[in-house]
C-alpha cells in the first residue's frame, strides 16, 4: 500500500515537472517570436504596411497579428529611432532584440555607441538597469559640477511609528534638529557594532564564519549596501576578492543585491575597497585597470558564471 502511495506521489511530481518544463519552453519560444515581430515593426511602420492591409493603425496591426501591447509597439519604434545613428547598438538589436537596448537608448550617444553595445552584450538586464540608473546620476552630477559650493542636501522621509515611540522621539529631539538626533543614534549603533566586531580570518576556507556574516549583515540590516539601493541583500560580497586575499575580513564583506554585485564584478564600482558611501559607478570617464589581478579574477568569475548560467559568488 505504501509503495502504491509513493508511486502516486512520484507520478504527480513527474507530471508537475513536465507541465512546468513545457510552459517554460513555450514561454521562451513566445518571447523569441515577439522579439522577431518587434524587429520588423519599424520597417512595417515606415512602409505603412498596416494601412495597405486595411488596419486602422500600427497598434491595431501589432495587437491583432502578434498580441503586442501599445506600449511594446511604442517602445520598439522609439528605441529603433533613438539608435538610428548608432551602428553598434543596431548590431546588438539584431542579435538580442530591440528591448535589450531600450534601457540605455536615451543615454547612448554616437561617441558612446560602442561602449553601450559592449555593456548590453555582457550585462544581464537587471545589472544593466542598475548601471544605467547610476550612470545617468553620475552624468547629471558631472554636468552640474560648477565648482560653486552648494548647501548640504536634505530629504524628507516619513515613518509609521507607535504613539509612544513618536512621543519619546519628540522629547529626545526637544528643540534640536532631527538630523542631529538621528546621527547620534547611528553613531551609537555603529559603536556598538564595532565593539562586537569579530576578528578577520586569514588563510580561510571559502565558507564565511557565522559571526562575521552576522556582523556584516547587521551593518545594513541585511539591505544592499550600495548607496541609494533599498533591496534586500542577496550576496555577501568580498570587496577585496577572496581569491586574492584568502581572508574573510568583516570590514571587507558587504551585503549586495544581485544587480549591484554584478556591477562590482564588472569593475564598474570605483573606490570599491572604501566604505560604500564612497562608492561611485565608473562611467566612460573612468577607466578600468585591465591589468590588475582583481580585474582578471572578475573576468574569470564572469566567464564561469556565463558557462554555468548560475550566480555562484566568489
Ligand atoms: Zn543593490
Detailed description of the structure:
This protein has 314 residues and is mainly α. The protein is built from 14 helices and 4 strands. It has helices at residues 2-46, 49-52, 58-66, 70-82, 87-96, 99-102, 113-122, 125-144, 163-173, 178-195, 210-218, 242-245, 258-265, 293-308; strands at residues 235-238, 253-256, 269-270, 280-281. The chain binds zinc ion. Zinc ion (ZN) is lined by residues 224, 226, 229, 231, 256-257, 259-260.
Helical content, roughly?
Answer: 55-70%
Percentage of residues in strands? under 5%
Which small molecules are bound?
A: zinc ion
Number of helices: 14
Structural class computed from helices and strand pairing: mainly alpha
* Ends apart, CA distance between termini: 48 Å
The rounded Rg comes to: 26 Å
Task: Count all strands and give the number.
Answer: 4
Order of helices and strands: HHHHHHHHHHHEHEHEEH
The quaternary structure here is single chain
What is the global morphology? globular
Largest sheet: 2 strands, antiparallel
Low-confidence stretches: 310-314
Please give the order of strands in the largest beta sheet. 1-2
Number of spatially distinct domains: 2
Amino acid at each position: 500500500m505504501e509503495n502504491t502511495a509513493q508511486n502516486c506521489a512520484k507520478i504527480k511530481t513527474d507530471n508537475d515537472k513536465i507541465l512546468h518544463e513545457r510552459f517554460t519552453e513555450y514561454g521562451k519560444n513566445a518571447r523569441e517570436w515577439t522579439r522577431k515581430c518587434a524587429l520588423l515593426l519599424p520597417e512595417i511602420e515606415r512602409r505603412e504596411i498596416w494601412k495597405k492591409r486595411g488596419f486602422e493603425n500600427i497598434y491595431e496591426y501589432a495587437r491583432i497579428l502578434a498580441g503586442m501591447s501599445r506600449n511594446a509597439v511604442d517602445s520598439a519604434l522609439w528605441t529603433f529611432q533613438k539608435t538610428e545613428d548608432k551602428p553598434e547598438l543596431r548590431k546588438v538589436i539584431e542579435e538580442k532584440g530591440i528591448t535589450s537596448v531600450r534601457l540605455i537608448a536615451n543615454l547612448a550617444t554616437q561617441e558612446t555607441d560602442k561602449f553601450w553595445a559592449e555593456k548590453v552584450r555582457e550585462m544581464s538586464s537587471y545589472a544593466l538597469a542598475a548601471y544605467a540608473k547610476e550612470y545617468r546620476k553620475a552624468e547629471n552630477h558631472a554636468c552640474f559640477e560648477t565648482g560653486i559650493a552648494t548647501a548640504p542636501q536634505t530629504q524628507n522621509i516619513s515613518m509609521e511609528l507607535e504613539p509612544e515611540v513618536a512621543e519619546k522621539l519628540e522629547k529626545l529631539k526637544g528643540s534640536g534638529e532631527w538630523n542631529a538626533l538621528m546621527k547620534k543614534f547611528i553613531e551609537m549603533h555603529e559603536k556598538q557594532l564595532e565593539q562586537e566586531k569579530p576578528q578577520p580570518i586569514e588563510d580561510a576556507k571559502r565558507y564565511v564564519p557565522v559571526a562575521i556574516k552576522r556582523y556584516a549583515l547587521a551593518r545594513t540590516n541585511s539591505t544592499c549596501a550600495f548607496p541609494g539601493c533599498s533591496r534586500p541583500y542577496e550576496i555577501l560580497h568580498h570587496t577585496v576578492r577572496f581569491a586574492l586575499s584568502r581572508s574573510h575580513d568583516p570590514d571587507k564583506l558587504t551585503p549586495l543585491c544581485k544587480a549591484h554585485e554584478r556591477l562590482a564584478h564588472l569593475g564598474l564600482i570605483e573606490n570599491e575597497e572604501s566604505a560604500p558611501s564612497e562608492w561611485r559607478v565608473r562611467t566612460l570617464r573612468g577607466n578600468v585597470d585591465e591589468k590588475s589581478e582583481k580585474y582578471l579574477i572578475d573576468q574569470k568569475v564572469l566567464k564561469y558564471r556565463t558557462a554555468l548560467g548560475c550566480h555562484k559568488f566568489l
